[in-house]
Amino acid sequence: MGSFSSLLVFGLVFLLIVNVVPLSYYLNEARLDKGKIPSEILLVNSRCFSRLYLTGFAVEHGHNLTVSRVSFNVTYFGERPVRAAELWYANLITAYARIISGSNGELKIQPTVKRIPYTKILSSDTAWTIDVVYGDNLEPLNKMLESGALNSGETASIRIEFASDDSPCFNPQSAGYFYVLLDFSNGAKGVISIK
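Now predict its structure.
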């Protein structure tokens, strides 16, 4: 039997084929933040699997082609709110190309699929967090106190920080790809893909 990463790659590809390929995509313009080096992506694909819309993909580059930070928005549409304490159980799985070595101008790229853990405060490890929740009037989400919830119609701004040895290689005009699958513990899920 293959390695765990092979199993994750197969699972992600199977999920994308079964749920995304036969269905039409929603096209949304990529968010271009001031102060960030925006990717040159004009359109991104997002699909609502079950109550989550992932949009507004933005990339902040580190050294050369490597990515130090990715951000996107998640709009939740569901009956039951996602409580702050439940964020620890959310699955955020990414698939991307990573530089594993290189010399004399030749880079070696490795396909990588990784479950990225949630954290309240980002550090030097690869992790994700919620920066802000827009339209958060019903039960304001406080990630530090683990109180409040993400309610239907609210949009969370999510940021993924990558450790320096785990940085994706991504340039929309020449190299790389990026898939993000977000799955909350209540069954709400969504995906965004950038090629």
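The two ends are 29 Å apart (CA to CA).
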